[in-house]
Amino acid sequence: MIMISSLGGLTVAVVIKYADNILKAFATSIAIVVACI
User: Tens digit of pLDDT for each residue in 1-37?
Assistant: First the structure.
């Protein structure tokens, strides 16, 4: 039970980390497009 919850916590941490990187890349691309207009 503890093993499952710790794995779930690690999975959530990894997802948040990668989602943060994706959001940064998305925001950067939008900023570039807006700067070009």
Answer: 677 788 777 888 888 888 888 888 888 898 888 888 7
Q: What three-state secondary structure class fits 37?
A: coil
User: What is the domain partition of the chain in residue ranges?
Assistant: 1-37
The CA–CA distances, whole Å, from 4 to 8, 11, 17, 22 equal 6, 10, 20, 27
Overall residue count recorded for the chain in this entry? 37
Q: What pLDDT is stored for residue 20 in this prediction?
A: 85
What are the C-alpha distances in Å from 1 to residues 9, 12, 13, 15, 33? 12, 17, 19, 21, 48
